[in-house]
């Protein structure tokens, strides 16, 4: 081989090597930092918990404890809430918190799992199983929250619930039936129209009106989630307003017993059902976790 041909081959090899070194490993997977996934058993059902710790958890004060933000629909909500809180927490505009998202049942389609687990009543008009919110709420109370408190440095009396759509309906069910399970609720686009508004009717019952409850409740709904504009053909805006008014009415009737629900309703401008959750997560958690005011919802 002549020297000139050798130099040409050498330059080609060098150029190729430089090109390959500039390209990241093909198909490298991406993981959210400080995150682990564990399984939790509920009799014959298995769920995944996606758990994300603050950046400082193992770096600064190893005695420091943190509030916990719990979510449903993990595969979707975990990415959204992790993303919308990261910068605010890094900049300390928002209080640091542990994120915990609960998946649907392993081996069952997400749609079928959430329809069964998040709905508060049995709707005989549906082909999918419904009405097992009581069992799923008990899973949170007896296994999920105790597991997190046992394995991480948490503030057990500072738990926040975040849910969207049926997850929002499930959160409202918890507020109605086991309100002390969480201190704060972010309920995005709860479909109170499910099963002829059975849950919304329960918020009008004397049992709820007279119950002592201390909680912060953020209700977010898209301005386009009306009967005319929404994909469901249901007026979720009017239902959200009715729910908010019921919480306000409860506060007025119980003004002397020292308890109350600090509620905030936000109508998201130009937002449809899909857009309402990220916006509710941003505004709702910002309202609750403002670093200047604390987890107070003020």
User: Largest sheet, order of strands side by side?
Assistant: 1-2-4-3-5-6-7-8
Number of helices: 9
Mean pLDDT over the residues: 89
Give the number of DSSP strands. 8
Distance between the termini: 80 Å
Structural class, by secondary structure, is alpha/beta
Helices and strands, in order, run as HEEEHEHHEHEHHEHEH
Beta-strand residue fraction: 15-25%
Instruction: Calculate Rg over CA atoms.
Output: 23 Å
CATH level 1 class label: Alpha Beta
Largest sheet: 8 strands, mixed
CATH fold category name:
Rossmann fold
Tag the structure with descriptive keywords:
298 residues; alpha/beta; Rossmann fold; eight-stranded mixed sheet; 9 helices; 40% helix; 20% strand
Protein model, in words:
By secondary structure, this protein is α/β, with parallel strands linked by helices. It is globular, with a radius of gyration of 23 Å. Helix 2 (about 75-90) packs across helix 9. It is built from 9 helices and 8 strands. Mean pLDDT is about 90; it is low at about 5-10 and about 10-20. The protein has one domain (about 35-290): Alpha/Beta hydrolase fold, catalytic domain (Rossmann fold), CATH 3.40.50.1820. Helix content is about 40%, strand content about 20%. It has helices at about 5-20, 75-90, 110-115, 135-150, 165-175, 200, 205-210, 235-255, 275-290; strands at about 35-40, 45-50, 65-70, 100, 155-165, 185-190, 215-220, 260-270.
């Amino acid at each position: 081989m002549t020297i000139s041909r050798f130099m040409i081959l050498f330059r080609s090899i060098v150029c190729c090597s430089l090109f390959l070194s500039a390209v990241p490993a093909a198909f490298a997977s991406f993981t959210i930092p400080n995150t682990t996934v564990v399984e939790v058993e509920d009799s014959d059902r298995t769920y995944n918990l996606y758990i994300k710790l603050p950046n400082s958890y193992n770096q600064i004060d190893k005695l420091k404890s943190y509030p916990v933000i719990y979510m449903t629909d993990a595969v979707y909500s975990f990415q959204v809430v992790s993303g919308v809180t990261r910068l605010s927490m890094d900049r300390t505009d928002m209080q640091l918190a542990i994120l915990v998202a609960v998946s649907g049942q392993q081996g069952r389609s997400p749609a079928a799992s959430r329809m069964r687990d998040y709905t508060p009543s049995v709707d005989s008009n549906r082909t999918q199983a419904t009405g097992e919110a009581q069992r799923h709420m008990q899973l949170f109370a007896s296994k999920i929250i105790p597991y997190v408190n046992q394995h991480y440095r948490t503030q057990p009396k500072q738990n926040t619930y975040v849910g969207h759509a049926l997850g929002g309906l499930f959160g409202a069910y918890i507020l109605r039936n086991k309100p002390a399970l969480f201190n704060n609720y972010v309920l995005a686009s709860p479909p109170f129209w499910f099963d002829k508004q059975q849950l919304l009717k329960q918020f009008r019952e004397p049992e709820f009106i007279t119950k002592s409850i201390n909680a912060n409740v953020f209700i977010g709904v898209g301005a386009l989630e009306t009967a005319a504009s929404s994909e469901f053909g249901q007026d979720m805006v009017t239902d959200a307003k009715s729910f908010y008014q019921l919480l306000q009415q409860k506060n007025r009737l119980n003004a002397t017993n020292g308890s109350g629900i600090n509620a905030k309703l936000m109508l998201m401008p130009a937002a449809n059902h899909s857009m309402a959750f990220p916006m509710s997560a941003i505004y709702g958690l910002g309202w609750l976790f403002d670093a200047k005011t604390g987890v107070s919802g003020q």
